[in-house]
């Protein structure tokens, strides 16, 4: 049975791009910045002898640098996710990384396949940009999920600190020291900013907008209202923690209910592609006669659009706001 390894090479190159980007990232910025490590990065930087203002400046630069370049047409698609993921790469470095991995992919395709230079160049650009985008999106999704799970525990820790007599700024500092990353570093930045005179409510609001998280907006609004009108902040935050936990449970329940529809859409869109790959691997000449027909390319485009539309429609139907 004839076997064409080109499709496998394409997949291996895409996976290699993602692994290469992750390896470069950890090599340049160290293991402590990986999401696989639960160490509080801010405290680790302080333990290494860095001054508090230097650590604050570096962390703020990493958190805000991607929001300042959304005017760049290509990078605007990536900036929001890079900001949520707190990628330490600068925008310039990320774009250079896209170019570098595209060149590597082009060389690998030229060596491993027999396709022409134009096709290799197109696939290399897609692999370079798509691989970096997939890597950033994956890190952003993991980081946001961790923050969502940590937030109720952090608020309850603040409630206990307030009830024993600590001021709110001290409660934030306790959260920054006691919980794990990534939320610990975020609250550590707020603690440092408040120590240098910034309003805590304003810092919380900026963090909520930067991460685009509704629960953090609730926290910022609660703190701001308490600062302006007074009241028992511990009781307010205790109620907020219960609301966030209830929303989180409801979100998980909705996710479980809609999982069947989501995976059905993915299966219906992915099964034809999987069949195409299997047929080409088992018999590379199976479609030779069909490819000679003048409607073959338009039909492929139409099928691709229908498969993409299926994913889009199923995503819309299962995108339930909680």
Architecture overview:
The protein is an all-alpha fold. Among the domains are: about 150-245, Receptor-associated Protein; about 245-320. The chain has 13 helices and no strands. The chain has helices spanning about 5-30, 40-45, 50-65, 75-85, 90-110, 115-165, 170-180, 185-195, 200-210, 215-230, 235-280, 290, 295-320.
Secondary-structure blueprint:
Layout: H1 6-29, H2 41-47, H3 52-64, H4 76-85, H5 91-112, H6 117-163, H7 168-178, H8 183-195, H9 200-211, H10 214-229, H11 233-282, H12 288-291, H13 296-318
Helix pairs in contact: 1-5, 1-6, 3-8, 4-6, 5-6, 6-7, 6-11, 7-8, 8-9, 9-10, 10-11, 11-13
Give a brief description.
By secondary structure, this protein is an all-alpha fold. 78% of the residues lie in helices and 0% in strands. The mean pLDDT is 77.
Q: List unreliable stretches of 5+ residues.
A: none
Categorize the overall geometry.
elongated
Secondary structure: number of strands: 0
- Which CATH class of the domain at 148-244? Mainly Alpha
Estimated radius of gyration: 24 Å
**Rounded mean pLDDT score:** 77
- What is the distance, rounded to the nearest whole angstrom, between the alpha carbons of the first and last residues? 52 Å
Coarse structural class? mainly alpha
Order of helices and strands: HHHHHHHHHHHHH
Gross CATH architecture of the domain at 148-244: Up-down Bundle
Q: Give the oligomeric state.
A: single chain
Number of helices: 13
Beta-strand percentage range: under 5%
The helix content, as a percent range, equals over 70%
CATH fold topology of the domain at 148-244: Receptor-associated Protein
Largest sheet: none
């Amino acid at each position: 049975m004839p076997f064409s390894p080109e499709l496998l090479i394409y997949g291996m190159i895409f996976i290699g791009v993602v692994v290469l980007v992750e390896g470069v990232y950890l090599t340049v910025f160290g293991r402590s910045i990986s999401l696989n490590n639960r160490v509080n990065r801010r405290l680790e930087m302080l333990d290494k002898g860095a001054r508090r203002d230097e650590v604050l400046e570096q962390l703020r630069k990493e958190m805000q640098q991607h929001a300042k370049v959304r005017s760049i047409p290509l990078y605007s698609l990536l900036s929001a996710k890079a900001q949520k993921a707190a990628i330490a790469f600068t925008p310039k470095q990320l774009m250079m990384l896209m170019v570098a991995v595209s060149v590597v992919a082009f060389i690998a395709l030229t060596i491993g396949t027999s396709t022409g230079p134009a096709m290799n160049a197109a696939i290399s650009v897609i692999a370079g940009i798509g691989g970096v985008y997939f890597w950033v999106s994956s890190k952003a999704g993991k980081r946001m999920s961790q923050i969502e799970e940590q937030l109720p525990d952090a608020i309850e820790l603040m409630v206990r600190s307030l009830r024993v007599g600590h001021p709110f700024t001290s409660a934030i500092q306790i959260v920054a020291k006691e919980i794990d990353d990534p939320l610990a570093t975020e609250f550590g930045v707020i603690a440092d900013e408040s120590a240098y005179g910034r309003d805590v409510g304003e810092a919380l609001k900026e963090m909520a907008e930067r991460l685009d998280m509704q629960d953090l907006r609730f926290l910022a609004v609660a703190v701001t209202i308490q600062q302006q009108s007074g009241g028992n902040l511990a009781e307010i935050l205790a109620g907020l923690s219960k609301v966030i936990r209830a929303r989180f449970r409801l979100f998980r329940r909705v996710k479980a209910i809609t999982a069947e529809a989501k995976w059905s859409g993915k299966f219906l869109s992915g099964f034809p592609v999987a069949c195409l790959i299997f047929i080409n691997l088992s018999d590379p000449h199976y479609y030779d006669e069909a490819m000679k027909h003048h409607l073959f390319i338009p039909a492929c485009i139409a099928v691709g659009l229908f498969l993409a539309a299926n994913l889009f429609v199923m995503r819309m139907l299962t995108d339930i706001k909680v």
